[in-house]
Amino acid sequence: MTLARRHTIVEYMATTTFLAPETRGPRGFGSRLRARALRVAELAATPLVPSDYLDVFNPLRAGADLRGRIEEIHPETADAATIVIRPGADWAGHVPGQYLRIGIDVDGVRLWRAYSLTHGPRSDGRISITVKAVPDGKVSNHLVHRARAGTLVHLEQAAGEFVLPTDGGKFLFVTAGSGITPVIGMLRNLFPVAESGVVRLPRSEPYDIVVVHVAPSEPHSIFIANLRELHDAGLIDLVARYDDEHGVLDVADLADLVPDLQERTTFACGPAGLLDALGAHHEERGLKLLTEQFRVATLVAGEGGTVTFTGNGTSIEADGSRPILDEAEEAGVLMPSGCRMGICYGCVLPMREGSVRDLRTGEITTAVEGDNVKIQTCISAAAGSCSIDH
Amino acid sequence: MTVLQKKPVSPIDHLTAEDIEQIGRELDAIRAEVVSARGESDAKYIRKVIDTQRKLELGSRAVLLFSLFPPAWIVGTAGLSVAKILENMEIGHNVMHGQWDWMRDPKIHSTTWEWDNASPSEQWKHSHNELHHNFTNVVGKDNDLGYGIMRVDEDQRWHPVYLAQPLWNFINACFFEYGIAAYDLEIGKNVKRKTLKSPEFKARAKVTLRKIRNQFKKDYVVHPILSGPSIVHTLSANFTANLVRNLWTHSVIMCGHFPEGVQTFEKHSIDGETKGEWYVRQMLGSANISGSKAMHIMTGNLSFQIEHHLFPDLPSNRYQEIAPKVKDLFDRYGLEYKTGSLPRQVASAWHKVIRLSLPNNFMGTNATPTPLPERASSPSTVAA
After folding, report:
1. ipTM score assigned to the predicted complex
2. Which chain A residue shows the shortest CA-CA distance from B58?
3. Which residues pair with A291 in a beta bridge?
4. By percentage, how much of chain B surpasses pLDDT 90?
5. Which residues of chain A have a CB within 8 Å of the CB of B51?
6. Scanning every residue of chain A, which has its alpha carbon at the shortest distance from the alpha carbon of B121?
7. What sign for the dihedral angle of Cα A91, A92, A96, A98?
8. What pTM was estimated for this model as a whole?
9. Out of A47, A111, A361, whose CB is closest to B115?
10. Residue A15 confidence (pLDDT)
11. Are strands A197-198 and A305-309 parallel, antiparallel or unpaired?
């Protein structure tokens, strides 16, 4: 089972600030000298590049590929934990509500997933994500139960348009399970909690917020203490609904739970079923809705499937018992190839998404969007649909 | 009929077709065991080797900035030689085999790695991974066998030109990286086919020349100039380190397929070869080197050449672990697991080079060819 993130904008105009790293234009003697020095360093490092050597000493420096180091891990519930990460120097910041993609080595294999950032910009420059271990989730279980402080992780810049407008308004958050994670980031940014208690900021005054939070049970509810604290301070209205206590939430009940529903813009994050129901409900009533979806996609490995080559747009129906290489060649796709028996790696191509089966061992390799797992096409058969960069 | 089958006692004479397929199945099982076990500790291993190699190289090059002083020259040259050997053998060769592709780390991947060697990795991967590993020890198909310039089997007709082959072999050893670049470019084949002027060959030659130019600039221009007053000494140190690396890698590679007793095969013997037969050819066509852990690392674990040829894409740090199982398989099927110390194997390989530089039976040591029963031919082809 894999966990990926999809965000859909139903109706909302957000001004998202993308903070790009400062570009340094070549000007003046100093920069010419720097360019010259860089050229010498490149010549001295060939066939590697200077950053290959610099990475040995400081993988988080400016100019390096974006990475981070896990500094702290705090358990939230029995199966959820917050991971505090020191990002590399080129981290461009984020807007609460956004997510980032993180690559971590699990059993030696680099796997990428997306998680919401669960706080506003912090003075110590660190970032955090909160992860709930899902059954069979390789990455989430690793992060919650096995990851250790000091581990180097790979990052992408924050992304996503599930963010609040900066000038306030009336909002309803509907969150289910770990769907609370992007919302807690927004709330913590608006209403920081210091040791002395909740801090009231003038900039947060124009926000009128109701949170309807759904969880299987109270002990499984991440951040519930934090939400209650804000509720008790009168900063938000919290409506907590537990499946074991109140039954599964019916979106038709929202009007009763939130009497001024009509006046609010809804932000929702949770499983697809809830979001679909909410979408239909809001559309019917002409209400504004912005959603962020946790897609729990179970890629079922089957026998054969449609193989799409993204470069030239060709799709072929591949048999589950024959190498993708042979199938593609027969369909007229020009493929790189070598020994055709799995030893030379001359046929390796990146699989963007999908599943393939190793014809020698039966082992299944699965990629979720963005993984770009490199596969040997000469010994891999389609095990379901897959898309290959070629 | 293989070259091998003309030997008086064929080493596979006693095996039935079913035995050979059973060997294949047992080897597949050994492979599957390693594949399912590889994980974090393996990843840690290769990252550690790369980390060590880079620090050693940087440290050595820093010391060589003062190579005017003899102790600095000696320490820096020794360090750089070791760093270059590590880079080519335990790292470059093995990464380019795809041994670490399973980690999905784009920085340690067969499709992105470029090594500290005259031959561009793209071309080396073709001639090494596709040709040499597929056609191991098949005379006329495997360029590694004598590098196209030597007589490697009694069946190759003797010619006086081969008298010089010990000398050629020595020169090739000294400048091995250029020898590799030349045969990765398949210069010999292109001369024969008169395709030296073809756009395809020219494009590939351009890539090789660019790589050689960059390698040259690094070792013989940039680093010496950066050394200021030590310019000449750094230049000589870098030359020495390249020479040491060339001699070492050449020796290790000779030990892999050239010692006496390692089998060679005829071109047509591999037509319709099954996976089991392919495995057996790798078993008979390779030889190991015994030694310490440090020695294994310095050879890029090609001291486990037999294991490497059976499973070219398994992580090199696992070869030592599976070697006893592989040897047990050899023993049970009455095959000779060829191994020996480095000096012994190097001497044996050189003995063969010298012996074959002379006409057959000149030294009275070569095998007398006798016909053997036909191998049971199998209709199936090599299946992946």
Report:
1. 0.88
2. A53
3. A8, A268
4. 73
5. 56
6. A47
7. negative
8. 0.85
9. A47
10. 32
11. unpaired
